[in-house]
C-alpha cells in the first residue's frame, strides 16, 4: 500500500500530509475492527474452547436460560458442582513426557486435551495452579530463539539495510516492502502444519540466520555495489524473521511438554516477554550500530 500511495502522489508537503492521514485512518480502522472482534469472540466456539472465561460465561448464560422459569423452594439454593482442578504434579500421562523440555519431548499438542479444562474455572484459576519454573524449564530453548530472532532483526533492520544502498528515492520503500513481504509469506507458510519445523530446527535457524549479516556488511562498505543484493537479503531477513520467530512463539505454547491450559497461558506470557525483551535489546543496540556505520 505504501508503494502505491508513494507512486500516486508527489513529494511535496501536502502529499506527505495526505499520506499521513491515510495511514492514520487505516490504523484507526484496524483498531475498530479489533474492538468488534473482541465483542464477537465470546460467541465463537473455537475461542470458547481455548479461553476459560468465554466458556465459563457461555455455560452460565445457557444455564440461566434453562433455569429462568424454574421455581426453587424458599430457603434452598441451586448447588453447582465444581469439577476438581488437577495439580500439575499429579497430572496423568496424557500422551506426553512430562518434565521434558520442548527439544526432547515427543507427541502432538494439537491432539491433546489440557487436563485442567474443567467446568466452572477461569484462566486465572488455571494459571494459579501452574508452576512458573516448570513452564520455564520446558520452553526455555524457544524463549531463547524468540529473543535471538527479534533482537537480531531490529539490530540491523531497518538502519543497516538503509545504509547498504540508497541509489534511488525508492530504495527505502522497497527495502521495507521486501521485509514485510518475506515476513508475511513465512507466517503464511506456518499455517500449513507440514511446513512447520521442529524445535531443534527453530533453535538452529535462529542463530544461523545471522550469516546474512556479513553479506550485508559488504554491501554497506560498497564492496558489493548496487541495490539488488540488499533487496534479496532483506527479503531473506524477513522470511527468517517470520518463520523462525513465529514458530518459536508457536512451540512455546503448543508443545506436548505442557499438560495444562494454565501452563500454556504462562508460556504465552513468557513468549511475549521474550519477544519484547529481544525487541528492546535489538533496538537499543541498533542506535550504537548506526553510529558506527560509514557515512
TrEMBL record:
Provide the Gene Ontology terms for cellular component.
Answer: plasma membrane
Family annotation (InterPro entries): Eqnu_transpt, MFS_trans_sf
| Topology of this chain in the membrane | Multi-pass membrane protein
Its domain of life reads Eukaryota
Q: Which family does it belong to?
A: Belongs to the SLC29A/ENT transporter (TC 2.A.57) family.
The membrane-spanning stretches of this chain are: 20-40, 142-164, 170-190, 202-224, 230-250, 271-290
What organism does the UniProt record list as the source?
Answer: Trypanosoma conorhini
| Protein name, entry field | Nucleoside transporter 1
What keywords are annotated for this sequence in UniProt? Membrane, Transmembrane, Transmembrane helix, Transport
Listed GO molecular functions?
Answer: nucleoside transmembrane transporter activity
Q: Where in the cell is it found?
A: Membrane
A Pfam family of this chain: Nucleoside_tran
